Amino acid sequence: MKLQYSLILIFTGLMALILLGINLVMYSMSSGYRQYNFFLSLENSSTIVASAVLQQEKAEDYYAVKNSILQHLADEEEYILRINKDRSNIEFPASLPLNEAFYWEAIRNGIAKHYENGVHYVGLYKEHAAGEDGILVVSSARDVDGDAYRKRLKTTLALAFLAAVFVMTLTTVFFSKRMFGPMVKIIKKVNSINAFNLNDRLEKEHSLEEIGELQDTLNGMLQRIETAFKAQQDYVSNISHSLRTPLTIIAGEAEIALSQLEKEHKATYSLQMIMQETEKLKHIINVLLELARSENNTQANAWRVLRLDEVLESVKEIIYKMDSRYKLKIDFSNFPENDSMLYVSCNEHLLSLAICNIILNGFKYSDNQDVRLKLHAADNEVKLQVIDSGIGIAPSEQDKIFNPYYRGSNTFDYEGFGVGLPLAMKILEMHKGTIRVSSKVGKGTKMEVVLPAAYAQQHV
Ligand code: ADP
């Protein structure tokens, strides 16, 4: 469970328990005090009745006092039992729900109290004179006001408890959001940073000092990583530049040599291989160079509006130069009737590089089987599907393959660095396009490149 939710649960649970305890103590104290007072009234009433019975001549006065001073108790009843001094032959009233222990307690201690089914009982024992016969007055009554008071108290305490728990939960949620909100933002942001946006930084939050310190620390770390990464990129970029010229010369010289030889000459095959391998090397170097370049380096004047099928023709040429066995099949079944729907605004060099990477993967991971291309234009989008019948990509890995340096778990037998697709994705994002993948392990892969059509703006 997330720390935020467990904190909310623990805090509100604990506070609810404490509140419940306080409420229970308040209820039992208040109710106990009320009951104590009621027993006192009943005891007073019993005392007057006992005095009236013991002093018959003043009985009227006692009853007058009882009626005028003592409050009238609901359902009040009195039972008078005569107890002889040897306390034998006592007949306790069977109509009362009291057991004998109650009567004996009253006789022994002078008083006994009992509460049952909403009725209070007080037993009061008085003797004519010490060691003489005595009387036991048992008074019973209902505390109607007390019961109503207890009911009201219960409802009030329960409502107050619910309201307090509700307010406490809201407050805890509010404060936990304030505390953990910035943390969630930081996690999201840090997760979104990769080799292509290392210059991104966390925005400074001023809510909590510790969170601010954490952000400063992470930003400092990103800065150090970016500096180290930049130094590496510069190194790769310089080497790639230095390699490009000799490679172009090798390819050019091989081509000249090839043109001067008879077709059947023994060296023809070797020269063809030199040219193919040089083309592959040039492609790898181009990928490395573009990886090392930042987005801002892309020259604005290199952008043009071109037909995607024409871009594909140059891609086909590059690929064919790399290996004449590569068979690219273009499927025209979905080709739009109106050619102008195929226009896209692009940097031809970069877009070709991205599409090349995707197609070369199709050949690589299908052991050079045919790769099919399908071109389709609709809804202001131009779509290119690259379909192979290769090893496929496991569902759990399909969203990871666009992360830099990630390689599928089934690619041990294939050479690669895990940079071709991330670079293709980056280039397509620069074109405001995207790439989707659908694949079945052992059956093949379909990569779909989607680009916004330039037709709407350029050719209306
Ligand atoms: P590389 O091919 O050099 O490993 P990429 O960035 O081009 O790096 O591709 C990343 C990963 O995506 C590959 O390692 C592979 O697992 C998977 N992948 C890409 N294209 C295909 C494909 N056509 N068929 C199967 N797996 C593919």
From TrEMBL:
<feature type="domain" description="Histidine kinase">
    <location>
        <begin position="238"/>
        <end position="455"/>
    </location>
</feature>
<keyword id="KW-0472">Membrane</keyword>
<keyword id="KW-0597">Phosphoprotein</keyword>
<dbReference type="InterPro" id="IPR005467">
    <property type="entry name" value="His_kinase_dom"/>
</dbReference>
<dbReference type="InterPro" id="IPR003661">
    <property type="entry name" value="HisK_dim/P_dom"/>
</dbReference>
<keyword id="KW-0067">ATP-binding</keyword>
<dbReference type="Pfam" id="PF02518">
    <property type="entry name" value="HATPase_c"/>
</dbReference>
<keyword id="KW-1003">Cell membrane</keyword>
<keyword id="KW-0812">Transmembrane</keyword>
<dbReference type="Pfam" id="PF00512">
    <property type="entry name" value="HisKA"/>
</dbReference>
<dbReference type="InterPro" id="IPR003594">
    <property type="entry name" value="HATPase_dom"/>
</dbReference>
<keyword id="KW-0902">Two-component regulatory system</keyword>
<feature type="domain" description="HAMP">
    <location>
        <begin position="177"/>
        <end position="230"/>
    </location>
</feature>
<dbReference type="GO" id="GO:0000155">
    <property type="term" value="F:phosphorelay sensor kinase activity"/>
</dbReference>
<feature type="transmembrane region" description="Helical">
    <location>
        <begin position="6"/>
        <end position="27"/>
    </location>
</feature>
<protein>
    <recommendedName>
        <fullName>histidine kinase</fullName>
        <ecNumber>2.7.13.3</ecNumber>
    </recommendedName>
</protein>
<keyword id="KW-1133">Transmembrane helix</keyword>
<feature type="transmembrane region" description="Helical">
    <location>
        <begin position="157"/>
        <end position="175"/>
    </location>
</feature>
<keyword id="KW-0808">Transferase</keyword>
<dbReference type="InterPro" id="IPR036097">
    <property type="entry name" value="HisK_dim/P_sf"/>
</dbReference>
<dbReference type="InterPro" id="IPR036890">
    <property type="entry name" value="HATPase_C_sf"/>
</dbReference>
<dbReference type="GO" id="GO:0005524">
    <property type="term" value="F:ATP binding"/>
</dbReference>
<dbReference type="GO" id="GO:0005886">
    <property type="term" value="C:plasma membrane"/>
</dbReference>
<keyword id="KW-0418">Kinase</keyword>
<keyword id="KW-0547">Nucleotide-binding</keyword>
<dbReference type="InterPro" id="IPR050398">
    <property type="entry name" value="HssS/ArlS-like"/>
</dbReference>
<dbReference type="InterPro" id="IPR003660">
    <property type="entry name" value="HAMP_dom"/>
</dbReference>
<dbReference type="InterPro" id="IPR004358">
    <property type="entry name" value="Sig_transdc_His_kin-like_C"/>
</dbReference>
